[in-house]
Input
Amino acid sequence: MELKLYDTLTREKRVFNPIDPARVRMYVCGPTVYDFAHIGNARPVIVFDVLFRLLRHIYGEKHVTYVRNITDVDDKINARAAERGVSIRDLTEETYRNFKADVAALGCLEPTVEPRATEHIDEMKLLIERLVASGHAYVAEDNVLFNVPSMPDYGRLSKRPLDEMIAGARVEVAPYKKDPQDFVLWKPSKPGEPGWPSPCGIVTPGRPGWHIECSAMSWKHLGETFDIHGGGIDLVFPHHENEIAQSRCAFSTSVMANYWMHNGFLQVEGEKMSKSLGNFFTIRELLQTDKFGSQKWPGDVLRLAMLMTHYRAPLDFKIDRLQEAQQKIRLWERLLLDLTMWDFRGLPPSPELLDILADDLNTPEVLTFVSRQENTSQISQETMQQFGTDLCFLGLAPDIVQKLYDETDEERARRQEELSRAIRDVKDATRKLNSLRIATSVSRGLVPAQVEALIAARTAARAAKDFKESDRIRDELAAMGVVLKDSKDGTTWEIAR
Ligand code: AMP
Ligand code: ZN
Output
């Protein structure tokens, strides 16, 4: 299998070659945590989860690092905290917890690292100071700005004409900017806003701009150059363009990431679903209420509905798509009910499935492949086992089965350890119980040696097929308050309760 990924920077599908196969590195821009995430926000999370699963399969669980950041410093956060009268920390913590629960319900694995912006302020300041020292940034009225003309090949990712970039940046042209395209790395905090001691000798406390956060966190957790950088298509400009400018200029490298991947929009009637347009449904609403289509939509249905479209294409969020996905999930669950044995650990996904998926994550084709046997009347246990494994690999199997499949090596070892401990505890308890019973029997005048002798006599009688005698001994023991238990390993006894 050869993995090929579409790279937005070179505008072509290229064979994926990691810098270091022992440490494959992927960074995906994560949520700004001020409110429930909408189902459009879930698209990159699901898409890059599929890629994460594929990379883990190819390079090994331990050899893939997936970083998805949390933006917990932002104007929207400040405004919402003030509106609700809660602290910024409480708001971001609560939103983050909700986000984690929502995306877990959509079958997404946890990334390897989920760094918070507010815990990387030092790294951001370090980068900013480097950029100023190397002439790529300057201080103006307590702001630090990146000077775009200082980077001759700025704009390669979005390939926009200059005037469009200026308009697209949607920044009012502050008089202190050397060039209208220059963007903020650090800005002064207004009273009441979160602030940190500023870099570059600025006295007023300040806070970072959005773009520098991702440059700092990817650097800290993945290094100066890494393999894959992802996010929604709306992030190409200005966010990713500016991340590239910052990181490449700070480290004097020719690339920040080798593959830039972007998912298309999830749309409602042709428009991007977004908070600002108000045309959104939160993941939570879809999972728990009947606001959309008069019913709740389980996580696996939402995930499947998402994967029915190729990640780069726009996806229309419609009820009939969800219904189609729901029918499929129900059919799959019915088919899997016939499976008598679950032993898929170590069983790899189908090679055909991997080949299709490795072609720039062609999930629609993968689903056609997975569905190929749906109408076959007799499906062997082996085929079914493979089918179950394929569904697990895609994160689309029924919950209980999926949980086992998704366990990391550590989690599995921990579960096995817990099980052995439980078995040991039960054995200890049984031993204790037996000794208590024997003590009780002795106190009731029962002599264990006598009971054992009677049992031996009964066993001998049974061996000689003298069932009259063996029954008589059993009755005698019963009269003494002893209950016998016969098993293939012999006879044990207990005191009748
Ligand atoms: P935000 O919290 O708005 O920064 O978005 C978080 C992630 O969701 C980013 O990767 C966005 O590109 C992505 N995103 C936001 N809206 C949509 C949408 N309607 N369709 C697909 N991706 C989206
Ligand atoms: Zn980012």
Remarks:
- The first strand starts at residue 4 and ends at 7.
- Residues 253 and 317 are 40 Å apart (CA to CA).
- The first helix runs from residue 39 to 59.
- The chain has a mean pLDDT of 93.
